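Running low. Invent one:
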Amino acid sequence: MDWFLFFLFLTGCMAAATTGALFQPGEWYDGLNKPSWTPPKWLFPVAWTTLYLFMSFAAMRVAQLDDNAHAMAFYALQLALNTLWTPIFFGLRRMRAGMIVILCLWVAVFGTMVAFFLLDTLAGILFVPYVAWVTTASALNWSVWRLNPEEATN
């Protein structure tokens, strides 16, 4: 196990997490209509901390393997899209554009999971909660967009 590599990947995740601090949901999001199944606010930092730890550990394992180019490319893509969604949805308040980004994110996360599974079973398993979380987040993005047509012009 290369813990230095783990911390490099974790630092990349923390850079992505910074967008959550810079573009917080705030009053605008609080005032929107949301579905009854919206996760409680406290769950988001807990979930993301866990997911970033899992992602970093999985990436550390796969990065040390031969023939990992496609898997690591998927990993880089999903991290970039992860970083992009928050400023688009919360910063620019563009729900439709956020929906496009999060659907691309879902594909990239799913692709990462599959590519990781092909190289390292544990790394693939560590991405299963991330796929589930992005699936939920996609449904939430969609629902908020549809429940707030007056806000959803973009």
Q: What stands out?
A: The radius of gyration is 16 Å. Residues 106 and 135 are 7 Å apart (CA to CA).
